[in-house]
Amino acid sequence: MFAALNRNAGPELLSLDLTMGQFKAMATLTTNGPQPVGELGRRLGLSEPAASLLVDKLAELDLAVRERDPQDGRRTLVTATPAADELAARLREGREEHIQAWLGALTDDELDGLTCGFLGLLRIAAQTAAQEPAAQPATATAVQHG
């Protein structure tokens, strides 16, 4: 299923002039909101200097900006630009259209089975998050957005 979604999104994704790292950083910002460079780096498995270079490139591409944290003027947050939000929404919409078409083609029994399976996966994800405190924020975010 994921492979089919990626094939359908392929032409638009391939037309982007972004590296995989830049795409992941943009997706992280549009999904999780403004965050310090160090936090973005941790989410992506990068050192702070590498994350800073990545943010510089996103800023050149008008996909991110550095802004003072309104709650702590000493901190700088990386924020997705409207262009990044629009690009992420466009990519999401394309996937959602395919999923909606596929779901619409299912029988009632197939849809009931799928719903039951997803509820089971959500239950297991919540149990896993409760057992692994370090993974809890990322898993909780994924469940909220899923």
Pattern of helices and strands: HHHHEEHHH
As for the number of domains, it is 2
Helix content: over 70%
Q: What topology, given as strand order, has the largest sheet?
A: 1-2
Largest sheet: 2 strands, antiparallel
What's the CATH H-level superfamily name of the largest domain? Winged helix-like DNA-binding domain superfamily/Winged helix DNA-binding domain
Strand content: 5-15%
Could you tell me the radius of gyration in angstroms?
Answer: 18 Å
| CATH third-level topology of the largest domain | Arc Repressor Mutant, subunit A
* Number of DSSP helical runs: 7
CATH-scheme architecture of the largest domain: Orthogonal Bundle
First and last CA, distance: 16 Å
Highest CATH level, the class of the largest domain: Mainly Alpha
- Per DSSP E runs of 2 or more residues, the count of β-strands stands at 2
Show unreliable segments: 135-146
Dominant shape: globular
Could you give the topology of this structure?
Blueprint: H1 2-15, H2 20-32, H3 37-44, H4 48-60, E1 64-69, E2 72-80, H5 82-104, H6 108-131, H7 136-145
Antiparallel strand pairs: 1-2
